[in-house]
Amino acid sequence: MQFMLLFSRQGKLRLQKWYVPLSDKEKKKITRELVQTVLARKPKMCSFLEWRDLKIVYKRYASLYFCCAIEDQDNELITLEIIHRYVELLDKYFGSVCELDIIFNFEKAYFILDEFLLGGEVQETSKKNVLKAIEQADLLQEVSYLFSSLGTSMFCSCWGSLSHHSYSFRNYSEACLACSVHPFAVY
Amino acid sequence: AKYISQCIDEIKQELKQDNIAVKANAVCKLTYLQMLGYDISWAAFNIIEVMSASKFTFKRVGYLAASQSFHEGTDVIMLTTNQIRKDLSSPSQYDTGVALTGLSCFVTPDLARDLANDIMTLMSHTKPYIRKKAVLIMYKVFLKYPESLRPAFPRLKEKLEDPDPGVQSAAVNVICELARRNPKNYLSLAPLFFKLMTSSTNNWVLIKIIKLFGALTPLEPRLGKKLIEPLTNLIHSTSAMSLLYECVNTVIAVLISLSSGMPNHSASIQLCVQKLRILIEDSDQNLKYLGLLAMSKILKTHPKSVQSHKDLILQCLDDKDESIRLRALDLLYGMVSKKNLMEIVKKLMTHVDKAEGTTYRDELLTKIIDICSQSNYQYITNFEWYISILVELTRLEGTRHGHLIAAQMLDVAIRVKAIRKFAVSQMSALLDSAHLLASSTQRNGICEVLYAAAWICGEFSEHLQEPHHTLEAMLRPKVTTLPGHIQAVYVQNVVKLYANILQQKEQAGEAEGAQAVTQLMVDRLPQFVQSADLEVQERASCILQLVKHIQKLQAKDVPVAEEVSALFAGELNPVAPKAQKKVPVPEGLDLDAWINEPLSDSESEDERPRAVFHEEEQRRPKHRPSEADEEELARRREARKQEQANNPFYIKSSPSPQKRYQDTPGVEHIPVVQIDLSVPLKVPGLPMSDQYVKLEEERRHRQKLEKDKRRKKRKEKEKKGKRRHSSLPTESDEDIAPAQQVDIVTEEMPENALPSDEDDKDPNDPYRALDIDLDKPLADSEKLPIQKHRNAETSKSPEKDVPVVEKKSKKPKKKEKKHKEKERDKEKKKQKEKKKSPKHKKKKHKKEKEERTKGKKKSKKQPLGSEEAAGEPVQNGAPEEEPLPPESSYSLLAENSYVKMTCDIRGSLQEDSQVTVAIVLENRSSSILKGMELSVLDSLNARMARPQGSSVHDGVPVPFQLPPGVSNEAQYVFTIQSIVMAQKLKGTLSFIAKNDEGATHEKLDFRLHFSCSSYLTTTPCYSDAFAKLLESGDLSMSSVKVDGIRMSFQNLLAKICFHHHFSVVERVDSCASMYSRSIQGHHVCLLVKKGENSVSVDGKCSDSTLLSNLLEEMKATLAKC
Fold it and tell me: B423 lies in a domain?
């Protein structure tokens, strides 16, 4: 796999992981191009497209698009499976995951991805193992989190009130949607 | 944007703070901003700082930021090497894990080279979690540093049989990826994989293995045969679509490589096609798409088995999804035959009408043309039908492919002689309705068609029914709105037409009619003369002059038609596209030489070039089917006409030079084709292509009857039958005699053209470097560079040392500047050591002891190798090169039952009288420590930097609280007046300890000891500069000797470097020179010599007090050794 992108229906990038070294400029260009092409596709269309010399596999989950670029000989179906597995992992970890979870805990989302894929290859196929690794790593940092001077939280004020477990995509408040654009809105 | 820039400013502020937690937080924010597309490369150094944090929380964030923002161009990446190495060997598996993950994203060739060995060690780590990560990252390392592949491969192979499935699958992944690039080196692993494949139940792994086999089979056909059976079994049994798809793909690959000679391979093809059919029929768009994709692969080798599914594929053309329709189109391309071409194209034409969205329609259009024209119009039996299809296509709104259609029209008209008459009639109709095309489609490409139409009408004007009518159509004022290049063609072909009409009229004896035509020309041509397009203008004015001249002649009743039409005599032959390139350069012809001396007179210039031209022309007689050639021709004609126009006697006196063309042989040799006259050649008006389908059916029916008859005859006559064309099968059932035939042979090639073989391999392929034979035994020189303890090298061969030395001497030169940062970095890393639990410490002490004993043993060996080592310059004895026992520069400050204070004092280069004191507070109690305050009694010489407005007696608050069992670091700046003397400051830490029972106020006194060494900063120095310094003579000298030292010299130096902030300048044998600099710029030079059981240190320094104090401190340190 060459890279993985997550972006919202509005075309906002939510997560990006590059497994090939590219310059920032190149990355930006690719991202823009891909977001446009993928968003332009109708829901009924199949999830694969050929782009440059790569194959793009994407899938939409609620308002998020998961988009992977694979090489010519790679298996598209297994890539879809990888995307699905990642979503399942996020879901398990956050408890019915939503876009906001990924915005506010983007570093967590990255950590999960890193446990699951490494250098573009599947590292661990067992969901249980990935989650276990993440949990233990979290535990390790939990200890220090308690006291560390996180005086300046990077989350907006609604973060506290939003118990993310109970919210799903459809019913988060509008105020929150607004600050989802500027995740550091208030502190 | 304003908000963001404000944010960034804020982050910059936060990064400046000393608190690592704040920094980590800032870096975390930066990572998010980076995702939003902001440049954060300026913060690279801060990211490294956070990476080197001791706490996992921060380290994790740091590595994440690094993996997101670092790339090969990031220069600070060099600084991370040691940090990563340290993290890799960290006792916590998650530290290691996070380092590996990060490394996988930003590994550079340098990092790969330096860390390859560490990662290899990790491949046999006790924890599968680490093993699997290490195995996967090796792939990235191989890519960056191919030399590591051979030494690492045996271990990688071992991992294929790892007890942990995760590690196993990781190894499979890596080998599969490697094998895909260079399969031949991995053939030997096939049996192992075969075993894995038959035993594994993990689909993820199976897919990878099967993919691997797909890559291997083209090299080893026997493997393919063996594979077929288990693969078909899998296809039958599996329920996972992804696995099924992979199997089918591989079976296809296997079958392609086997080509033939397999008894049951048609069965497996059938199976594949059946399964694919199921995929295509599935309602899931994705499966449908993949099914079609795989189908097209089969099509290449086994077209027959796919053709039976034509119905299904035609169905897919109706699919809602464009990409599926495109795939289906691709398939159709391979599926056409003579029989079904018309039917398929008809279907496509209806799609063209229906299709919304120009891109898809354009795609359809090109596909129709592709399908029809593939392999020299092999499948077209009726070219009239094809021409009318093309004409129909011109009526499409807004297509971009006008030029494509035009090219097809030209191609067909030129190459199929029999069709010319029909084509001309169609084209004249097209010209007639040109206003329709031109008016609505000025902006898009369809008017290109007029280009072809005009050319065909002009070139083959003898076939025109009503040339006069067409001539008028071409001279309409509206034409001037067309693009220039089309107008140019118009003008040129108007003359051809004119010549033709003239001849007709003259032969019929209608002098008046001829004059009328001339008058028409004279009337209409001026509109072109005014054209803004140069080409048009030039041609038009030439021709106008010519016509006016003809008019004069006509007035004198001179017959001119012969001469005029002679202008355009000659036949055009199609030429193979590569022919021009293959014309060999005639011997003795130097294309680079001047044909004439640049300054020769004009007469000879006129003559010579033409001669050269002529020579070439004989080699490739007349070929200009394409636009480019047409232009060339036009240019030459232009030149001729110019000549003629300039010479009023020309026409009368001599026959035109064009005659030469007629003499050239070749035209007669082109096989002229019989026309099947069963098709009425003239179809009234613009025929619809559908008519042809019907006609074709009738014709076919008749033909069949005929054929049957013929066949009977033939049996008697023994193949007397006319040989048509070699490339067309004459006997098979499929054969449907084409109505017209293409001049296939006429793609001319120069006789002595060489078959050119193209070099298709890309030398820049990054994977090529991995094409390494893995079966060869490892050579010594190939071993990974391992940074070893120097003493251990003594028994090694001298060659081995060369790369190491080279690297060392290179490094500092390149990175003089960075070195400082590096040193500082190193220091920081060391501080972290301190924070580890006491348990670890004990372990380390043990290790230290072991190390010491080892060192002793090694030092005994030393004399053996010392000859080789002699004279070998050592640039830096800093601890990075040797596995020294981890040490801490933090010293104990004070402790009680609540809290333990340790501190480290560092000088800063920027401020010449400031030192930073980092105090680590560790909570040892079960209560929370709050409200900590630090008060220090300033001395005359040293005072603490306090926040503005606070008095000397106020305490300085500690910016954090400590929950039980944790520690944190606070940094304070002190200003020092004189640094030549050691200092001691008294201070008190006061705090509130709060637990369940209540809160108590506590105090802890401490003494800060500013030693002279703490004013020194590690500064690299080079031997030449060092020598100059010593020679300058303004340094005072002092020396000290310590007995009873048993530590190895190497470790000794490291200790001095570490505790007293020196760096090694040069080391020869058991003698070393060292250098350091104080924050106030004093130079300190040392010469350290090791005797039997003693060490002597000679020092030189610009300040004698400082030197003596330093040496005292050093003595104390050495005495502990």
Answer: yes
